[in-house]
Amino acid sequence: MGRLIACGTAVVAVLSGGLVSTAQADDNGGEKFLPPKNSEVVSTKDVSTRIIGGTNTSISSAPWMVQLLFEYDNDGLFYFTCGGTLVAPNKVLTAAHCVTDENGKALDMVGRGMILANTAKLAGGPNDEGTAVGISRSYFAGSYNADTIDNDIALLTLAKPLTGTPAQPASYGDTARYAAGTTATTYGWGMTGSSPDDRLADTLQRVTQPLRSDAECSQNLDTSLGIPGAYKAGHMICAGNGGTGNDSTGKATCPGDSGSPMIVNGRIIGVTSWGVATQSELCNFGGTYDVYTKVSTYVPAIQPRIDDTSFSRDHRADPFARTTGSTGYTFTSSGEKVTRKAFAGSYSGYNYIVQTDLNRDGYEDLIARQASTGDVYWLHRSVSSATYVKTKIFSNWKTVRAIVAPGDVNGDGKGDIVSVTSAGSLMVYPSFGNGKFNTAVKVGTGYQAYNQVRGHGDFTNDGKADLLVRRGGTNALYLVKGTGKSTAPFEAPVLVRPDWSVYNLIVTPGDVNGDGKADVLVRTPGGSLSLLKGTGKGTSEIFATGVSLGTGWQNYYTIA
Questions:
Q1: What pLDDT shows up at residue 45?
Q2: DSSP string covering 168-185, please?
Q3: Tell me: the pLDDT tens digits for 516-540?
Q4: CA distance 330 to 321
Q5: Separation of alpha carbons 143 and 122, rounded Å
């Protein structure tokens, strides 16, 4: 019988500022480092330009591809370990086994990890190139099991945003892209042959394989391994025509490809995870398929972490407020408590302020409407100066009833803007992610009936941005569930609370307690503020029992 092996063997290290090719190293998952030009390169064996059955690919064809590097021994050597996919300017999707040790314990990716982007060349080649950036935190979307390589998916937050074009995960519930027989494309720098003596590709490769049904995957892999249940439908997918045992005829992922994406119709459907191997044949094992993590299953957990920007740059949303004197403040969240922290500038000229991260750079933005003109501005961090700058994005919105920044409404990976016109039309402004917008789309009517329209994040645990609206007169609260579709991004409002008249302000900064579910802050006329934790249920149980955040909040007349 064969054995199951994760597909991420490291073979490249950074030494004294240069990149050095080494022999096969451990399969594990990098700090700010940009390899200098003309560094010394040592290689004991030439690297092939061909992965098994693959072809060379330029970075312009796969601008979202990145390499994970890790310093194992605090000795200045950074090893190439895996591939990854840029899914937002500051987020990388990869396999969990790439950022854990052989026992499943998380590696110190913040202190000893690094991402190399914007190059198709493997780190350590004769012409060092690319952009290196550190990692600020790691997130595991499931309970990763190192023994069975189950829930093999992780998301890394970068210390600063990258310029490559991100790729988007398949939507939760997507079935079309997973149909058996569909041709999928996988990328990576994995080994160029199945022998332990073979090396990684020096140039990014791509290989196409047909997807297999869950029944085929289970029969093939469980039988090959002699382990019933080794293949876990719903968590995994498999692909290929079956290993040939001959590298000149096979098409297969190999060690070194782990963490890299499988793409169908422009979306990431899988993350390279594992395959069947023997000690002498590490991939392309006769008759067996390659296994990938099924990305759509984990979107409800991944998406809130992709859009988890906060002023303190952790994974908890920090509310913004201003006093009656118009001084702006951020309140750092620690889960069930918020602590005031001064925020530079006066906000006296604005009568509407909303939090968001329009360009997905990891730094919190504000959308603010000027009272005198109705012009709407994007207050965002300048990459070059590290200060906040003001960019006008809309003109003369004086009569607009509500402005909302719920997140990615149409499923293209960019934060969008939603408004309610004076006539009650619900409008979506699809964002290009740079302060510019596509043509507005009218997606609903009758919203003049609601006295508060709010939303930031996913309230139903399906990875799609939702809205909350409170009806005038009855003060009943409704959920407007997002669909992720550009033509009809919201469903009809559904009642979730019959009477919210006890609150005079509803605030939706995002995931305040950091559990991956969107929360709500509510204020009474007396100034008591409470955190209502999101449950992920789109029913009357949408929020848990409130947690008090203190009193005196009547002194803040705008809370974003």
A1: 27
A2: EEPPTT--GGG-TT-EEE
A3: 999 999 999 999 999 999 999 988 8
A4: 6
A5: 31
Pair of tokens at residue 289 = 């398929």
pLDDT, one tens digit per residue, over 235-251 is 999 999 999 999 889 99
Tokens of 187: 């990328």
* Residues with active-site annotation: 97, 152, 258
Evaluate whether 553 touches 528 at the Cβ level (below 8 Å).
yes
- The strand pair at 529-532 and 267-277 is best described as unpaired
Answer left, alpha or beta for residue 80, where phi above 0 means left and psi between -120 and 50 means alpha. Answer: beta
Tokens of residue 72, six digits: 């194992």
Confidence grade of residue 79 (pLDDT, cut at 50, 70, 90): confident
Residue 429 to residue 442: CA distance in whole angstroms: 9
283 contacts 273 by C-beta, under 8 angstroms: no
Task: Quickly tell me which residue has 């402004």 as its tokens.
Answer: 429
How far apart, in Å, do the first and last CA atoms of the chain sit? Answer: 59
**Closest CA relative to residue 488, chosen from 402, 410, 403, 408:** 410
**Nearest partner of 307 among 477, 59, 471, 509, judged by Cα:** 509
Place of tokens 């191997």: 277
